[in-house]
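Sanity check

After download, print the first record. It should look like this:
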Amino acid sequence: MASDAAIIQLPRGRVLAECGPMRMVIAAWLGRIIQPEEAARAAAAALALLDRVAALRPWLARRPESRMSTLGDPVAEEMVQSVLRVGDEDLTPMAAVAGSLSDAVADFLEARGMTRIIVDNGGDVAVRVRDGGEVRVGICTEPGLSQARFLLRLEARERSSWGVATSGLGGRSFTRGIATAATVVADRASLADAAATAVANACTVDDPGVRRLPARELDPDTDIPDLPVTVHVGGLSAEARREALGRALRKASSLVGRGVVLGAFVAVGGLWGMTPSLRPWLEECGGSLGVDGP
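Expected structure tokens:
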């Protein structure tokens, strides 16, 4: 385990598992009673899972192949399968790493009998609800904002498992597009994570106001060294922003149509849109909210 690994008790029964790029907040309930001891056990499991995935990074940082499903690690194999389902050739399994870790921790807690689970790995969220009710996820349309512009309500009626992930400018990973938020909802956080990367990458336009550089110039250890990634966006016309938004929503609609994801929301330069499938779950709120349970 890395020397910077830490498990920290947070207010309201949440537990933080932190190590390197991972900053995972875990909450688990049995009925309406929050279970911080179970969350702490899950945090220890999360750190062990991260170590396993890190050891496989030389393989996971390559273009995905079906034979990678024999890597012998369930988290790594889900990363591969999620990226293969999304289908973009420029994605490696690392595009699903944060969401896959969230899913693995949520599955760990569900196997221990928890009836409501929220695992938030830096914005890649796994939700499990077995006791009815809803979980609310706030969406910020600009990086660095403390207030959520939109509220996503996940109600345990037809399903009990969700993944919610956001990609775009200002996030933890590189993007090839110009979206400030590309939020995707799927059955699993692993799929949502890979799909959010793909939707954010599709939110693009050729314009002098968009500057890109090969990813290796920003990070020599990146999994996409030869691909151009966005480093600056400025002075875009409304027409250019609408064109980028339209491309992203067409990508998201394709993923919905193929049954890969449940829906998507995209924001770019003050404009926003969503797939029709997401509309029943989304409302404007203007409040400060990240992810909340009962």
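If your output differs, re-run the checksum step. Summary of this record's structure: The two ends are 33 Å apart (CA to CA).
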